[in-house]
Design brief:
The chain has about 375 residues and is of the alpha/beta class. Helices cover about 25% and strands about 30% of the residues.
Length: about 375
């Protein structure tokens, strides 16, 4: 006897999620071992014109940004083409509360946040699963490149890197819980991007050649300083006074800066000081507002601390463990010893020094292709 299930596909308006909808609508859900019906869901997260005209932000939204009105139109068009029900769920208020405002506060505090992980951890999967359940869908499917499998021996859902490592998105998914993983499908995990585009063409999807989005959805042109100023002005707030000293790693005073939010670890340009050799931001001290700069070689460090942890392949870390760690999305995972360092905190010691370990970014731990877990660098 087959079991019927309903799957809600998170449709962003891009080729990946659209292809997932087409695959499930035409082939059924083999993981459900029965027939499946498909519903399309899009979360409307940010009004792309909201800050238009403020502090140089363009009046017309630029193409190539995810979650735009054009993307909603494209997702609706795909749903109509496939003949599946489609819903847009307005989550702008929650997105601002859980993603945009923390992003602003982190930058103002001298850290470098990663909004895509915040969005996945606190909104996309959580809200999509709640919405899916409210309309009778037992699970959701997304266009992320990742693999999700249940391991009976450990009794846990395991998140793995995909076949197409160039499209690996597990770095942004480290915060998913066991409950969320148990109700989520990643149909593209064993496919490459060229194969996905070919499937899209085979299903007659008009956006088969649509480029991938490249920018943070709420940051016009990638200029976060411009966004911070415009957003705070809209909120009736002043940019906090965080001006301070700019010093060399030797302690030598080099000048003054206008605010710590203007800097991120590893930054070279826009330091406001001349030097016969290139200088990079080495450290930002939120308490004293002091920014330390130095040579590129001084960016290398052997350790990091991570907090606000989430574990996937293990229940919790109780003893030192050999892992590979990613400290940025495009960072090649590096070998390290990972060990507990207190309540909800770990210490990672790398075999080789790593460049520009940045507070506010994610550190994701891997055992082979498996995601052990991850946390936020402090």
């Amino acid at each position: 006897m087959t079991q019927h299930t309903t799957i809600a596909v998170a449709m962003s308006g891009g080729v990946d999620s659209s292809t997932v909808a087409a695959m499930l609508a035409h082939q059924g859900d083999t993981q459900a071992r029965g027939s499946a019906s498909v519903i399309g869901l899009t979360l409307q997260l940010w009004d792309q014109t909201r800050l238009a005209g403020r502090h140089g932000i363009p009046d017309a939204p630029k193409a190539g940004r995810c979650c735009s009105l054009d993307d909603v139109y494209d997702a609706r068009r795909v749903a109509e083409h496939l003949g599946i029900p489609y819903y847009v769920v307005n989550q702008q208020e929650r997105f601002e509360r859980d993603v945009v405002r923390p992003f602003v506060d982190e930058y103002l505090a001298g850290r470098t946040p990663i909004p895509c992980s915040l969005c996945n951890n606190h909104l996309k999967f959580d809200q999509l699963l709640l919405t899916a359940r409210s309309i009778g869908a037992g699970r959701i499917a997304t266009g992320h490149y990742a693999v999700n499998e249940f391991d009976p021996a450990r009794g846990r859902w395991i998140l793995k890197r995909p076949t197409d490592l160039a499209k690996d998105q597990t770095y942004f998914l480290f915060g998913l819980t066991q409950k969320q993983l148990s109700r989520t499908l990643f149909p593209l995990g064993r496919l490459t991007k060229p194969e996905v585009r070919e499937i899209a063409r085979a299903h007659g999807l008009a956006l088969a050649e649509k480029p991938d989005s490249q920018e943070i959805c709420f940051i016009p042109g990638g200029d976060y300083k411009q966004f911070l100023t415009a957003y705070l002005e809209e909120q009736g707030e002043q940019v906090p006074e965080t001006a301070g000293e700019l010093v060399a790693s030797s302690g030598e005073f080099l000048g003054r800066h206008d605010g710590i939010f203007n800097f991120t670890v590893g930054q070279r340009k826009g330091l406001g000081v001349s030097s016969p050799s290139p200088l990079y931001v080495l450290n930002i001290d939120p308490a004293s507002h002091r920014v330390t700069v130095g040579a590129d070689a001084e960016l290398a460090t052997r350790s990091l601390r991570g907090r606000r942890l989430n574990w996937i392949s293990i229940p919790v870390l109780t003893a030192p463990m050999r892992v590979k760690i990613k400290i940025r999305h495009r960072h090649e995972p590096a070998w390290a010893k990972l060990e507990p360092a207190g309540p909800d905190e770990v210490l990672a010691t790398f075999d080789e020094p790593q460049r520009a370990v940045t507070p506010g970014q994610s550190a994701v731990f891997y055992d082979g292709d498996e995601v052990v877990g991850g946390g936020w660098i402090v």
